[in-house]
Design brief:
With about 140 residues, this protein is mainly β. The protein has a single domain, classed as Jelly Rolls, CATH 2.60.120. Helix content is about 0%, strand content about 50%. The strands form three sheets. A five-stranded antiparallel β-sheet has the order 2-9-5-6-8, with no helix packed on it. Strand 5 (about 50-55) and strand 6 (about 65-70) form a beta hairpin. It is globular and about 40 Å long.
């Protein structure tokens, strides 16, 4: 947790080569009813695409569930998403791990933990960093 109660860092991941990076689970969020996520790409140079996945888990971290996929390209950009555990889900949600469509989110599914997973293509340079913060309520 950061200095502000309810504000958590999902990580600051430096992106250089193509690949997948997985942040640590932010745990002890049991009872969370909402989460406001702020994802920020500080673009350096190079690269092709960066997909940032916000994930939750409903089984203690064994199964990761995508709740958002934000597609970033070759420019600095910020994305803000708001999730509510109170949104009814009347149809089955199939858990995915880095398979959610670009620029989509699944509302109504919040477990007791969150993390950031980043999949990049191309070679980035110049201190390209993907940062994610959440405010859990």
């Amino acid at each position: 947790m950061m200095d502000n109660p309810g504000l958590y860092s999902l990580g600051d991941l430096a992106v250089t080569a193509a690949g997948t990076q997985v942040g640590e689970w932010v745990t002890d969020l049991d009872g969370m009813l909402a989460a406001l996520a702020n994802l920020r790409l500080a673009y350096g140079s190079g690269g092709t695409t960066i997909r940032a996945y916000v994930q939750t888990s409903l089984d203690g971290g064994t199964t990761a569930v995508d709740i958002a996929c934000v597609l970033f390209g070759t420019a600095s950009e910020t994305a803000v998403l708001n999730f509510s555990a109170l949104t009814p889900k009347l149809t089955q949600v199939t858990p995915t791990d880095v398979a959610l469509a670009d620029d989509t989110a699944v509302d109504g599914v919040l477990g007791d933990r969150l993390r950031l997973k980043v999949v990049s293509t191309g070679t980035y340079a110049g201190s390209t960093v993907l940062s994610a913060r959440i405010h859990a309520r």
